[in-house]
Amino acid sequence: MKKTSLIILASIIMFGCKQQEEKSSNPFFGEFNTPFNVPPFDKIDTSHYLPAFIKGIEENQVEIDAIVNNAEAPTFENTIYTLDQSGKLLGNVSRVFYSLNSANTDSAMQAIAQKVAPLTTKHRDNIALNEKLFLRIKTVYENLETSNLDALQKRVVSKYYNDFVRSGANLSETDKGKLREINQKLSILSLNFLENHLFETNSNFKLVIDNQADLDGLPQPVIEEAAQAAKAANLDGKWVFTLQKPSLLPFLQYAKNRALREKIYRGYYMRGNNNDRFDNKENLLNIANLRAERSKLLGYKTYAEYSISQNMASTPDKVYEFLTKLMVPAQEVAKRDRDEMQKIVDKEGGKFKLDTWDWWYYAEKLRKEKYDLDESEIKPYFALNNVRDGMFYVANKLYGLSFTKLTNVPIYHPDVEAFEVKEADGTHAGVIYLDYFPRDSKSAGAWCGSFRDQSYDANGKRVAPVITMVLNFTKPTADGPSLLTWDETSTLFHEFGHALHGLFADGKYSRIAGNIPTDMVELPSQVMENWVGVPEVLNVYAKHYKTGEVIPQELLAKLQKSLVFNQAFETVEYIAASVLDLDWHSFDEPKKLDVLDFEKKSMEKLNLMKEIIPRYRTTYFAHIIDGYAAGYYVYLWAAVLDSDAFQAFVESGDIYNKELAAKFRKHILTEGGNDEGMVQYRKFRGQDPSLEPLLKKRGLN
């Protein structure tokens, strides 16, 4: 054998060995050898992600090329279904990486995200703008009426055809080039916005208190947690408050020092607006302009029109009308609450007009005055583990599910717990991870995602999902467990509703399985909140963390009466944010403007009362960067649906009505993507939703 041949052979052997070594060492390059095939977090190293993304893109491109180069005429099986089932490795690594980049990130993960964003954006565009692939899809689509496909297959075909059109498949080559450039810019700008938001929330502001008198009014557990935060920051003997909600909100509610309340609240609402390297004003304006340009390129007047056209609302005008209609009664009630709070200020000798940073403090006083209820009275009855078990109890009563804590699966952080979920007959339904507490490596807020979506393998066997719930709740103290606020308790049930949706989604086609309109996607989550405050449920989980005593009936009655309290404030601040979102996405062409002036005029147009600001201001409005652009309104839209849906249980006389629960599971959670949103809702409810249950629940009627 010639020397050159030996060298080539040696190179091939070495390359093969290297590939084998990579395959054996990179967990993403094979089956996860773990219970229930959950991600092997203990084996995944940061260095594994980029190679897995690159290999996933390569494999997916090979799959796309095989579809495009198939000599056979396009069919559902060889084009649509094959496309639907492609990209397994890329999807696998994406779900794990992006989940952890939000829940447990570091500088190395963020650096990978910066590298991956342009790669995956380019890959998505390579698929969406592949002319030959689109022609095959279009051929199947144009022959739907004469095909023998069933209703679900026809829906899948229509969805993919629409996806490709909305992604630019019909554009000229010149315009496709423009679209690619816009998409690349948007991917990086969005990532920069979110990274700035993370730093501004978790690292760029701390209220450090060294005078014990400045803690006056704060409950002891809040003080203890602030002392723990100070110790962790090497500030022993002091107290640290942050912009994370479990630290921020109690300070705003209880701290008597008005100047410090203003200081921490300004820190909160000035995030991304401090004219430093984490400033988000230019980022957001560029994103809004690029989205406007992109929408125009795709044939839509505005991004709002582009986004909402796929939703139940169908047009931006309908959303504006819906929000304006609710704003009137909500702001009327909020103004009455403001006037009552101002009376308290005046009675106490305060020589000032109520301002935005005063609302939580005086709302707490007003709650005490109207309902003889202080939230610190009820918190001892909402220990995290008890609330979690109550949440599981409701799922068991409605759907027959059981939850078993897993100690044999890898977790990605000590704060995380994992549970196996089983159906009433003992069948494995999936695994759910719960990640409870704030940390510098975690984004603010609460969300639900998946490490693995449900699917079907080659043998037609269902592959169960692996769901993750990420939260930012009050941490345990040295002397006691995590005690939740009422809002945190509702949030836990809310995210669990998303988790049930993920667990129950069941379909052969990934494009429609569990895939419901954006303004319906909060229905599964928000409907669960309705069970939180029902006496039958509270009597199960609301137990004193020290004595185990069930919440006393007198306290329960006060809590029940107070549930409508401050709902007007929450509705107004929410509508304000929703309108701000829509306004940013109503450009019919790119604009040069002052970001803060635009925000101010948006709120003036809404006639927003000065004592309330939008729930999210422009520079930290992460929702509209991360999936809810021109869609933040959906929470309130879905609130109409969830209130009406729960009314069905109330009217039946049984809040655990198993027949209704089965219908809700089937038509909304399992088969919600099988038809249009309102069609599926009517299948469950038997009628269109009514606005009245929501108005009643929020005390706005």
Number of strands: 9
N/C terminus separation: 91 Å
Helix fraction? 55-70%
What's the story with the biggest beta sheet? 5 strands, mixed
Q: Treating each run of at least 4 consecutive H or I residues as one helix, how many helices?
A: 27
Backbone structural class: mainly alpha
Q: From the alpha-carbon coordinates, what is the Rg to the nearest angstrom?
A: 26 Å
Unreliable stretches (pLDDT < 50, length at least 5) are: 1-21
> In what order do the strands lie side by side in the largest sheet?
3-4-5-9-6
Shape category: globular
Q: What's the rounded overall pLDDT mean?
A: 95
Strand content range: 5-15%
Structure description:
The structure is a single chain. With 701 residues, the chain is mainly alpha-helical. Among the domains are: 1-30; 43-170, Endopeptidase. Chain P, domain 1 (Glutathione S-transferase Yfyf (Class Pi), Chain A, domain 2, Up-down Bundle); 204-269, no CATH class; 302-374 and 569-624, no CATH class. Helices cover 56% and strands 6% of the residues. It contains 27 helices and 9 strands. The strands form 3 sheets. Strands 3-4-5-9-6 form a 5-stranded mixed sheet. A hairpin with a 5-residue loop joins strand 7 (455-456) and strand 8 (462-463). Helix 2 (49-68) runs antiparallel to helix 4 and helix 18 (486-504) packs across helix 19. The longest helix is centred in the middle third of the chain and has 32 residues, at 316-347. It is globular and about 85 Å long. It starts with a helix and ends with a helix.
